[in-house]
Every structure is written in C-alpha cells, then in structure tokens.
Amino acid sequence: MSFDATSDVAPAVTRSAGSRLLSVDAMRGTVMLLVFLSHFADGYLYRLGGDAERLRERLNLLTRMASPGFMLISGLMLGLLYARSPERFGAVASKLQRRGLFLLTVGHVLIVPTCRFWADEPWYLLRVLPVTDTIGLALLVGPSLVTRLGGRARAALGVALFGVSWLVSLVWWPHSMVAETLKEALFGQQHLNVLVSSFPTIPWLGFYLVGSLFGEWLGTWGRADVVGVARRFQWVGVGMGAVGVLLSLAHFWLRRMGGDLWVGGAAEALSELTSYAQKYPPGPTYLALHGGAVLSGLGLMMRAEQRGWLLPYMRWAGLIGRHSLFAFLLQFYVYFLGIYSLRLPYTHLWPLVFLATVGLQWGLLWAWDVREARTRVRPGVAASGL
Q1: What Pfam families has UniProt attached to this entry (predicted)?
Q2: What is the pLDDT along the chain (386 residues), one digit of tens a residue?
Q3: Which residues pair with 21 in a beta bridge?
Q4: Could you write out the DSSP letters of every residue in 150-189?
Q5: Strand intervals (E) in the chain
Q6: In 126, 318, 320, 361, which residue has its Cα 20 to 30 A from 31's Cα atom?
C-alpha cells in the first residue's frame, strides 16, 4: 500500500517507504492501534458483562477518534495524491477505485462473517454494514470529484452532504423495509431497526471530502514549507476541537435544563447533534472533537519528523499505517473471531494480552512489508502506488 506521491517534499522530511511521508503513515498507524484496542475490548470484554462491560465502555470512549481519524487521513491522502501529480492522477485514480471495489466485494465477504456478536440475530450476515463498505464507496467516488472540484469546493460539498444527511436522518421516517434499509445505510439513524450495525455512507463521505482539502494543502504548499502546513494543521485542529467543546457544553446545558423531558422532537434532535458520544450516525461534536485531535496530532508528528524526534516510534507505527488495509482486515480475525471465540477469562493483566496481539499483527505486517519491498526491487516491477 505504498503511495508514491511525495517525492519532491523538502529533503528534511523522512520517508517511511519509497517516498512516503513517515509522519502521515505514523499517524495512520497510531489511529489503527486505537482500532486494535477498541476491537480487542469488544472481542475480549463484550461477553463478560458486569465490571468488564464498564471497562469496555471506557475503552471505547478512549478510542472514539479511530473512525474519524482513519476517514480524515484517507481523505487527506486523496487530496495529497492529486495535488502532487495531477497529470498522472488517472492511473492512481484507477487503482484507488479498484481498491474501493475490492472493499465493497471481497473485503465485505471477508469481514462480515467475523462479526459473531450478532450471530443470534436472524439474517445477521446481510444486516452488517462495516466501515470498509463506506470507505470503498468513498474510494469509488472521491477520485472523480477531486479532478472536478477544487479543495474548498470539495470541503463545502462535504459539509453540505453532512448537513443534508442529518436533516434526512431526523425528519424522514419511512415505513417500508426497503426505504428504512436505505435510510440506515445511507444516512443513519439513532436506533437501527433493519441493520444490526451500520456506518452510514453519506455523512462519512462528507467528512472524507473535507479531509481531501487538508491533503491538497500538504501536496501544494508542503514542497516549500512542510512546517508551515503542520502549523496550519495544528491551528485548524485546535479550532475544530474548540467547536467540539462548545457544542459539548451546549449539550450538557440542554440536558441539565431539560433533563429527561428533552425527549422527542427538536429537543431530542439538538441533544443528538451536540452529544460528544453521537457516533451512529456521526454527530458534529463527535467529528469536531476527534477529527480536530487527529489533525492536530498529525501536525505535531510532521514537526517532530522535521526535527528528528520520535523517529523510532514513527517507523514502528508507520509500518502499520503503510499497510493499513491489510492491518484492518487482519484485526477482525484476531479480535472478532480469535479473541472472541477463545472466551478468555477476565484478568487484570489484560493489557499484556492486548500487547501480545499487537506484536503478533505487527510481525505479520513486517513480513508483508518485506515481501512488498522485494517485489518493488525486482527488475521491471514498478511500485504500485497503493
């Protein structure tokens, strides 16, 4: 999964493989570690109940930035790839779209059977919409939009899609199963009736397009001033976080003023829109807080990379980020199939169990990386750019 799109960045920038920015790979690897922890908590603690369930809920709060972070950085990579070499983007776009088709077909078939949590639900294999389906659709649509719309226009479109999605989610209540399935899959709703798990496509696609603007900044201005772009990421991330904090304060004020009476109608809608925990579908507070944290973190990593700080960690996490698709598929089998099926008893040493699973997956990713490196150096074999 090598993106050959940053070959003319300032010489001080470290490369993780070929000509990739190490900090971007390391940030994506860090987000993937949060995915690991979240799914480890689900696979290990979900069935235990009691105190273990409360621990799982706390760990899920800690790892909530995983989904916004992964979608934001995926969008960033789209904008970066196009901004770096628009004249050669056609070949890259084809590869991105093939990857999107892979996620929607083979990836879906590989992932859904691992979701054993809902095995007792009738037809559960047909009622799970994993995040990879949403990413796959974004990879199909994004390359066409990035060549037709500028960065600001894409970001505006993303915000509009997000707003329309929430409007539809709040005001459209279909009665047929087909229409309700479409609503849950495309726009989402607070309580699912047809699907048992869903990452609604439209709001997440909107956030993906907003992320592509940040990639354009990095691709256009990063040649001359990577540190300047990193500072801009930090300030925008802080601004997003501040908006998230204000919305959270508004949520707590609304709940305190209205209490349990704020149920139904506009009051409940305001409560959902301002809740920091509103993930399904993703709320503005949730995305502002966690997306801002990821963008600020990326800016910090870019500046650390320039100064030569944290390089051992960045190289270690960068390997995960470089092969994020393989890592994402692999962890479903490790946690949702392996750990869940083992039915391990609870132990206070669970962090060591988690670290062991990370070590196992890192070793497999390292072997995959070595294989790809050998493929790249064979005569007549070019890097895939993905």
Answers
A1: HGSNAT_cat (PF07786)
A2: 333 333 333 333 455 544 568 999 999 999 999 999 999 999 999 888 888 889 999 999 889 999 999 999 999 999 999 998 899 999 999 999 999 999 999 999 999 999 988 888 899 899 999 999 999 999 999 999 999 999 999 999 999 999 999 999 999 999 999 999 999 999 998 889 999 999 999 999 999 999 999 999 998 877 668 889 999 999 999 999 999 999 999 888 877 776 555 555 666 778 888 888 899 899 999 999 999 999 999 999 999 999 999 999 999 999 999 999 999 999 999 999 999 999 999 999 999 999 999 999 999 999 999 998 887 655 443 333 33
A3: 15
A4: -HHHHHHHHHHHHHHHHHHHHH----SHHHHHHHHHHT--
A5: 128-129, 197-198
A6: 126
Question: Residue 348 carries which DSSP code?
Answer: T
* Cα 33 from Cα 25, distance rounded (Å): 12
Integer Cα distance of 322 and 377 in angstroms:
17
How large is the angle between the packed helices 201-221 and 284-307, nearest 10 degrees?
30
Written as six digits, the tokens of 361 are 């997956």
Contact call for residues 361 and 334 (beta carbons, < 8 A): yes
Q: How far is CA 241 from the centre of its chain?
A: 17
The token pair at 170 is 């709040």
CB atoms within 10 A of CB 178: 9
* Angle CA 129–95–91, to nearest 5: 150
Q: Dihedral of the CA atoms 157, 160, 164, 169 (nearest 10)?
A: 90
> Residue 123 to residues 126, 142, 169: CA-CA distances in angstroms?
6, 32, 24
Number of CB atoms found within 10 A of residue 263's CB: 10
The secondary structure of 49-100 as a DSSP string is -HHHHHHHHHHHHHTTTHHHHHHHHHHHHHHHHHHH-GGGHHHHHHHHHHHH
> Can you tell me which residue has the tokens 């990370």?
358
CB contact at 8 A, 237 and 99: no
Helices (H) and strands (E) in the chain, counts: 16, 2
CB of 22 within 8 A of CB of 315?
yes
- Is residue 147 within 8 Å of 82, Cβ to Cβ? yes
